[in-house]
């Protein structure tokens, strides 16, 4: 279809198209004027992303992509609507209750009817580039629309606080019970440790073990020294028992033996002199020999006495070595026992420390959950308070009229085309050519034409194979 054909169809069906266009526009304007006026109250809330003042951490949900969508769902939830109903005491509104009785015949609950009624006029729109959520409410009353928008904003903020505080209260109750059990466990562990310390008579510390270890090291050193002294005394005793007893240091250093040996030396020299001068039988020589024998007897006696002292000293050293060795063994046994006791005590002490650590952590979590349960600061706050609008938001007469003009025009054109398709007419030479497949030789104005233009050319043409006459059409007369 060419544009000229389209225009010819519109000219032919203009009255039908005008009627359709007028009906659509007039109906839209009439309906817009008859519809009750609706006023829209708009409030807005802002989601303030700040760290939690109690835990000093960022809210985990604020960084997720669906956080704003979640806030919109919360605003549209029944819980927020129920809070609005409680805050505004809509359950006591007799007019709304009568409306519910009329519309539902008492079926269902009045509260659920109110929730559906409020949601039907509520519109929540999150901002695409910010953390602001707009809350729109429509009502025939400007004051009611603004009041409901503000009520939904306040109910949303209160609900977000409840959604944070209620779990915190539950956690607080849980931590209180766990803290009580942890405190009882800590007390039992402390009692077991105290009873163990009293039973063993010790304080479970490493200082006592260090003292005993130092004493063990000292006894070990004393044993080494005693063993050296005992070995030396045993060697001197063995020397004293042999034929070299007179070479002992004790014998050589004994002054009495030294004096007796000096007297013996002088008497032997005197005896030798008397024997040479007086002879062996002389009484003086005999007396001198008797004196020498007596001196030797005294030296032997004193030597035996000194060597017997060496044996006594050796026995003493041996006894001392045995005592030190026994003390060392006893100290070693004591150390092993103390180590076992210390290990057992350390186990009990670690139980006390672990119980204390668990108790401290639970107390900290309990205090934190208690603070969170008492928190009155929400991450959402009112940005804009709705004011009663001065102009109605719907119906929008100008916008509806423009839409009616556009849709009416489309519908009018569509009706004209449908009418033309149901009753096809030849309205210009092109229609004849399209319908018959023959060329148009010429056209004349219709007899009832108001004006004939002689300057208008008469179309002439020859058919290549045959001649034909176009179909008559209103407004034109065709000829050969």
From TrEMBL:
Residues 230-241 have a biased composition (Low complexity). Residues 345-419 form the Tyrosine-protein kinase G-rich domain. Its main location: membrane. Residues 5-88 form the Polysaccharide chain length determinant N-terminal domain. Residues 226-247 are annotated as: Disordered. InterPro entries: Bact_polysacc_biosynth/exp, Chain_len_reg_EpsF, GNVR, LPS_length_determ_N. Residues 257-305 form a coiled coil. The chain crosses the membrane at residues 15-35, 397-419. Pfam families: GNVR, Wzz. It is a multi-pass membrane protein. It is found in: Cell membrane. Keywords: Cell membrane, Coiled coil, Membrane, Transmembrane, Transmembrane helix. This is Chain length determinant protein EpsF. It comes from Pelomonas parva. The gene is epsF.
């Amino acid at each position: 279809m060419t544009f000229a054909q389209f225009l010819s169809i519109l000219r032919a069906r203009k009255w039908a198209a005008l009627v359709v266009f007028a009906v659509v526009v007039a109906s839209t304007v009439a309906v817009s004027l008859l519809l009750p006026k609706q006023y829209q109250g708009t409030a807005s809330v802002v989601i303030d992303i700040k760290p939690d003042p109690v835990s000093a951490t960022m809210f985990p949900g604020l960084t997720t992509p669906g956080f704003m969508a979640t806030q919109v769902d919360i605003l549209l939830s029944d819980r927020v609507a129920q809070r609005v109903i409680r805050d505004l005491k809509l359950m006591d509104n007799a007019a709304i209750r009568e409306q519910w009785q009329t519309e539902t015949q008492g079926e269902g609950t009045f509260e659920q009817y109110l929730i559906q009624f409020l949601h039907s006029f509520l519109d929540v729109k999150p901002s695409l580039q910010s953390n602001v959520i707009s809350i729109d409410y429509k009502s025939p009353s400007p004051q009611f629309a603004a009041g409901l928008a503000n009520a939904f904003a306040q109910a949303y903020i209160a609900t977000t606080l409840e959604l944070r505080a209620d779990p915190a209260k539950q956690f607080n109750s849980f931590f209180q019970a766990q803290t009580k059990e942890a405190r009882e466990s800590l007390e039992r562990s402390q009692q077991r440790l105290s009873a163990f310390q009293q039973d063993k008579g010790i304080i479970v510390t490493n200082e006592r073990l260090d003292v005993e270890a130092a004493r063990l090291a000292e006894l070990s050193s004393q044993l080494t020294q005693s063993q050296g002294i005992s070995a030396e005394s045993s060697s001197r005793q063995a020397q004293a028992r042999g034929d070299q007893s007179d070479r002992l240091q004790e014998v050589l250093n004994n002054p009495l033996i030294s004096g007796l040996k000096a007297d013996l030396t002088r008497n032997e020299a005197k005896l030798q002199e008397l024997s040479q001068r007086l002879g062996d039988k002389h009484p003086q020589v005999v007396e001198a020999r008797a004196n020498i024998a007596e001196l030797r007897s005294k030296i032997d006696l004193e030597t035996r006495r000194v060597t017997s002292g060496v044996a006594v000293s050796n026995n003493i050293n041996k006894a001392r070595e045995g005592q030190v060795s026994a003390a060392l063994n006893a100290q070693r046994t004591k150390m092993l026992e103390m180590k076992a006791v210390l290990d057992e005590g350390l186990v009990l002490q670690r139980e006390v420390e672990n119980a204390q650590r668990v108790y401290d952590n639970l107390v900290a979590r309990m205090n934190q959950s208690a603070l969170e349960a008492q928190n009155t600061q929400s991450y959402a706050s009112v940005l804009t308070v709705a004011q009663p609008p001065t102009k109605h938001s719907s119906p929008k007469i100008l916008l509806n009229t423009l839409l009616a003009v556009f849709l009416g025009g489309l519908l009018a054109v569509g009706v004209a085309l449908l009418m033309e398709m149901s009753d096809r007419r030849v309205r210009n030479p092109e229609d004849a050519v399209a319908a018959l497949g023959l060329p148009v030789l010429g056209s004349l104005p219709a007899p009832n034409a108001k004006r004939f233009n002689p300057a208008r050319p008469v179309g002439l043409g020859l058919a290549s194979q045959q001649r034909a006459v176009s179909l008559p059409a209103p407004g034109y007369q065709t000829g050969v």
